[in-house]
C-alpha cells in the first residue's frame, strides 16, 4: 500500500523542489496564513501549521502533491476552521451513504481512498517551526 503521509525526507524534498520560490520567504521570517476562505482581505495572521489535506474527489488536479494532497500554511484559527469543514464534509458523505444504503460516497471519487473519518482527509498537521526551523 502506498504511504499516505510525507516522511521527513519527502518534506525536505518538497521544500527544496516544489516550493522553490516560497523557500526564500522562509529565510528569517515566517510566512503568512494562506487561508483561501477570506473573500476580501487575506488572513493577517502568521502561519503556525503546515497542513496536508487530501484533495478529495479532485486529487489528480492542479496544485496537489504526489499523494493527491494540498499542502498549505495556516494560522491556528483558519486551521481550526479547516478541520471543522473537513468534519462536516465527512459527516455529509456519511449521511449520503446511509440514505443511499451504499458506501461509495465514503471514498475519494478520484483515487478511491476511503474517507471514513476526518483523519483520512487531514493527512498531516505539523508545526511550522518543525518544518522550517529557520523560518520562525
Ligand atoms: Zn488564518
Ligand atoms: Zn481563514
Ligand atoms: Zn483521492
Question: What does this molecule look like?
Answer:
With 136 residues, the protein is α+β, with helices and mostly antiparallel strands. The mean pLDDT is 84. Strands 2-1-3 form a three-stranded antiparallel sheet. The protein is globular. 21% of the residues are buried. The chain has one domain (8-131). It starts with 7 loop residues before the first helix and ends in a 5-residue tail after the last helix. It has helices at 8-18, 20-25, 76-100, 128-131; strands spanning 49-54, 69-74, 122-127. The chain binds zinc ion (3 copies). One zinc ion (ZN) binds at residues 33, 35, 43, 45, 74-75, 77-78. One zinc ion binds at residues 54, 59, 68, 108, 110-111, 113.
Give a quick set of tags describing it.
136 residues, alpha+beta, three-stranded antiparallel beta sheet, 3 strands, globular, binds zinc ion
Biggest sheet character: 3 strands, antiparallel
Report the sheet-strand fraction.
Answer: 5-15%
Strand order of the largest sheet: 2-1-3
Domain count, please report it. 1
The value of Rg in angstroms is: 16 Å
Distance between the termini: 35 Å
What is the strand tally? 3
Number of helices: 4
- Counting helices, strands and paired strands, the structural category is alpha+beta
Which small-molecule ligands are present, each listed once? zinc ion
Kindly report the average pLDDT value: 84
Query: Element order, helices and strands?
Result: HHEEHEH
Q: Give the % helix.
A: 25-40%
Overall body shape: globular
Would you identify the regions where 5 or more consecutive residues have pLDDT less than 50?
none
